[in-house]
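Recall that a protein's primary structure is simply its ordered list of amino acids. Everything else, from secondary elements to tertiary packing, is in principle encoded there. The following example makes that idea concrete.
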Amino acid sequence: MNHRVLFTGLVSVLLSACAAATPTPMAATPTQTSPPPVPTLTPTAAPPKVELRAKAEVVNCRFGPGTVYELINELSGGQSARVVGRDESSTWWYVRDPGNPNGFCWVSSDVTEIEGETQKLPVESAPVVTVIDTTLRAEPTRIVVGCDQFPQTIFLEAEITTNGPAFVTWKWEASTGVSSQEVIMVFEQAGTQLINDYYQIGAPGDYWIRLNLLAPNQIIREVKVPVTCTP
């Protein structure tokens, strides 16, 4: 009986010791973080309000600052337009196209009157000139001849149009695998130039001939000429 009491008391002491040895978890201390800085917005100056009025009966509005650029629109005498930029010499004004709310064009200062602080207008760069239209024609469009009447000649004519002064690089390519050397055509101003050439074939078949424009932008035009013969 005394042994049982002694054993029970020993177990109680051991349990009390284990309870005392168990560490008490400490509450986590919240980390103090500073709020992110609020960005400071620097107010931008409002663009100057500048208007122009056409002095001449008709004022041309062009693709770029010069008479060498394509004509886009016109202002009639007394008509006004909002000016949004200028060239370096302030001899041409960059305006909102009155005929196209989302478009812009250039007018000469010689034929306009200005109201506003033009010296605060941004200087606009001249636009990048591109080929805006290309056509290619073949004559004849179909060949039917006797089989003893070869070679036959296909005559080619192409029209290339730019919206300003440019160097246009082009070459021919045919379905037979032949191609011409690259040719550079000089445009001193906006306009259209012609290319006339010919291609000879020596047998019946379905031929195609391509005009490849390589610069200032890439365009491909192709004509197909079926050729048949009768014995």
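Residues 50-120 form a domain with the SH3 type barrels. fold (CATH 2.30.30.40). The first helix runs from residue 2 to 21.
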